[in-house]
Batch of 2 targets.
Target 1
Amino acid sequence: MARKRAKAIPRTTGKGGNYRKTKAGAGMTRKGVRAYRKANPGSKLKTAVTGKVKKGSKAAKRRKSYCARSLGQLKRSSAKTRNNPNSRIRQARRRWKC
């Protein structure tokens, strides 16, 4: 009898992954965003706003909006996550410069 090959587990981080490792700032990679948009036509998902932005620009507004949303996530998370400087939500907020 022929044995079935086990399906490869889809990776979320590392080579071929769609998400950054926690130490790299968490969040989705460019490749991950492209894959998501391909799977969900009409999506407006974008990568993080990480550089300098002009006050009042679209990018600045996206950053401000993300920071407000993620602060709510941070407040609702467990004390262990909330107080850990290396948790995914804290790293992502640091990457977005919140």
Note: The CA atoms of residues 7 and 70 lie 35 Å apart.
Target 2
Amino acid sequence: MKKLFRTFMILASVVTFMFVSMAAAPDADARVKAKKKYKIAVVVPNGVDPYFFSKWYGSVQAAKEAGVTVTMFDAGGYEFLPKQVAHVEDIIAAKYDGMIICPISTKGMVNAVHKAMDKGIKVVVDNIDLDSNRVKNRVMKNSYELGLLIGATMAHAINYQGKVMMLPGPSGIEMVTSMAKGFEEYMSHYPKIKVVAKEFTKSNVQHAYQTAEDLLKKHPDVKGIYPWATLIARGTVDAVKAAGYKPGQIKIVTHNLVVGIEKDIRDGWVHAAVLAEQIAMAKEAVYNVIDLIEGRQPPGAPHRGGTLSYIKNYMAYQHNLDILDRSGIEAPKNWMIKRQKRAANIVGGKRR
């Protein structure tokens, strides 16, 4: 009972913290124009993932509003840490004014980022945390809260009993670990729920398919599956279909709505998805790095010698898909379709 109370108190404090952080943000119009046409690098692990490409839309829109330029540096996958390090070296050599980075590794990218800061490049950490007290601003999802929301949704969907499997994402990533912790801690309050498998997997449809296929053979009576995010969710859904299950027979709860997940929810293959406003998140990061370049501390709650802002999280179900405000989570379809034409300011990556 004490553990359950602690979990809900954490959730309550998170909500309060988010409210304070958002309330402290200045009026958007007051942050629109930069003093100069600064060069800003946006460093991502896996730009081919539509989640990051929709964030790229937010970066581009904010850059247009502010009068700066942005270039995406895409490592091509969470497994390519040396590539991301090399990208930061290139950014230093090209003398960028600012850098927004979603680090592949919380610890493994510290030295490269510190080297950039030593050269005068202002840094905002985005999406996945960096183990550094020198960073002056973070724009983040609350990963633990995301895991709690997925856990709460899953527990209700399976009537608080049965076997559950986890495909929590690529190993060694703080966000993955934190989400998994939130999910598992919520599940731990219900003794009739048993997590029977937990397999880390690449953020890749085929790899997730193979992992889910193997796990379903070992646990054919599973009631729920938590796949970390969209590419892993798509692979999981494909495996469930191939194994002969019916829509809704296994409750799948994931993170994000792109890559066909919306259709999977409408068709009953995915029960729900927790959403975060990634476009708003990307825009905020651009505005914040401009603040740092121009000598201002970005808004947010005090955190590790700087400031931190959390973006909003909420749930998408079959019954509310048509009434969701999507402005913070989805780029226009036409913009996404023409993504190949927008590769001129994207460095690296694998178009797979």
Note: Residues 8 and 148 are 10 Å apart (CA to CA).
